[in-house]
Amino acid sequence: MNAGLTIKKIVVVGPESTGKSTLCQQLASHYHSVWCSEFAREYLLKNGTNYTFENLLEIAKGQIALEEKATDQLREQMLQDANHPESIQTKPYLFIDTDMYVMKVWCEFVFGKCHTWILDRIVERTYDLYLLCKPDLPWVKDELREYPDETTRIRLYHHYRELLSQQNVPWVEIDGLEEDRFRKAIKAVDSYL
Q: What is the pTM of this model?
């Protein structure tokens, strides 16, 4: 493996029920790579959905830890590939379902404020591409989702869009049905990385 090979981090953001997890899984499979799941799901399934402002800080810290673990997993996979050049080579792409922008929007939308710790992570962490999932898929109910109404989902989408418009990392809007989303995401990754 090239010692200078850098992991490229692609973050998938957007309102709930917009296919973020599915898209991350599909992309990781397509590129023979790794994806980082959303820590909040695991946390809320374990601790219940009656969360506080302080719980969101715990979730944010858990998300960062999960991202670091996924990064280590990808590095290990790439090292193994280097020892077996005859096998399919892992792409140095980490697909991340949720980052601190999501935590910022969540904090501000529900509690009207955001933890300084989350804002500091936004400033210091670097990513290579954002994929913003548009809320044009049918909302799917599950035990954790809070906002089935279209108006709220669109408001949240615009929060993400505004945040991404104000930062320097390239971003691409992903819309359409599942296969369209997947094709658009592949095109974005191939174009920007």
A: 0.91
